[in-house]
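Appendix C reproduces, verbatim, an entry submitted by the partner laboratory led by Prof. M.T., so that reviewers can inspect both the input and the predicted structure.
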Amino acid sequence: MKLPEATNFIEQIINEELLAGKFESRNNELLVRFPPEPNGYLHIGHIKAMCINFGVKERYGCELNLRMDDTNPAKEDYEYVNSICEAVKWLGFEYDRLVFASDYYDRLYEIAEKYILDGNAYVCDLSAEEITATRGTLTEPGTLSPYRNRSIEENLKLFREMKAGVYPDGAKVLRAKIDMASPNLNMRDPVVYRIAHVPHYRTGDKWCIYPMYDFAHPVSDAIEGITHSLCSLEFENHRPLYNWFVEKAGFPAPLPRQIEFARLNITNTLMSKRYLKKLVDEKVVSGWDDPRMPTIMGLKNRGVPPEALKKFCADVGVAKAYSVVNSAQLDSCIRDNLNANAERAMAVINPVKLTLTNYSGEEELPFEINPTREDGGIRQVKFTGSVYIDRNDFSLNPPPKYKRLQKGGNVRLKGAYIVHCDDVKLDKNGEVEEILCTYYPETKSGSGVTSDIKAKGVVQWVDCKYGVDAEFRHYESLLKDEEYPDQDYAERLNYDSEKIFHGKAEPYLAECEENKAFQLIREGYYKKSAQNGLVLSEIVSLKDNFNK
């Protein structure tokens, strides 16, 4: 049997199982799944789980189920199902079938009755608070429920009455009968079914009892014939319960195997659907796809390439140990991708007029579309001798070693000419209103003419005649700090995480297609959109703070 070389501990386990003949009864055909709950939009942490599961599909040539673990009707909706499917597709992953835990409600109920008939489950009248209070601690065993020894007949009757809607919410639950003294608290008679008179987005009012996730998840795996349940490390303590539910249900071997990996944690980044939903509900952000959100749709809306996200997850790797990744590493992956692929363009965020007093006429200047590529190409940029430059590129009182424009100094206009500042017009407040310069015709970029005239700095510009108005949106993290573990996220929110500026951009940016990414020379990487005019939203800065 020829197997792919293992690139991580999960693949090593799979290879060992295949070589040991564990899956010979199914012709060595594996089946994995990606099982999100449709109660919110997926975030960047889910991308790692996707890369691992879809990576197994690709490397072993097996199939993958995209399963919606929809066992909590109060929080789930088709909006989230659709967003999950869209996120998977946008990242370039292909699943073999879309399934739902709710597809198996009838089968799950039958298995729950089997637990009762086998003496492995009982109906309990304790409230949720009482169950919690009697569960015990890590050092003390739990207390047996007074209803634990009900007869099989009584349990079956009560469970069927729960299903028929005889009892109100919270009146009764079905609990697994395992071990109230187990050192693993998850094994202390966990709840299997609860009463909830809530319509389900798929099954409507058919059910008023719903399976708990810890039961429905492993049994759904077994129903589908999943071979490997790959999940994050917080489910490690649930693994004995996962195995118990599957074994007691009576499924034939080989049973699905749960393998845990360290989840993705990123500094200064909210990685909880519950908190992200709170941001949306409280209108701190404009929605799940707000460019500041770490959701997949937010990252897409911001202009982040999906290939950069997958490269980031590949660089982080698959490990067992908990770790936190610096957000600068994510930015670096995004920046590397855009540097190689994004077109270059010019824009000025804080414009001030610069006039060449000795220039007349109009011309087109060649501009490199992407100098990092051999086939990067050239386009033409119009130049009339009256341009905008950024106010930050001129100083009346320059500091030492200043390399941009100052009175009496030279600077090169990107792709154009070296200019010399002769004079400055100030407004009534003493602010620079117009910079008056002369240009050196022999210094034209790309002319092949060697000139003795030098300029220490190069600045971007936008022609005054042809430039267009643009809105620039800059984003910062939604959190003000990297780590305050004892504070609620609300105390850490950066309410000034979006800043808007109004400047000028070359007309090509207004003419090109929607959602295109650009490197704005000396500014950063931006995505173009048209929302009542040209909007350029920052994807990532030019400066790379990550030590590769």
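The radius of gyration is 31 Å. Additional entries are available on request from the coordinating office.
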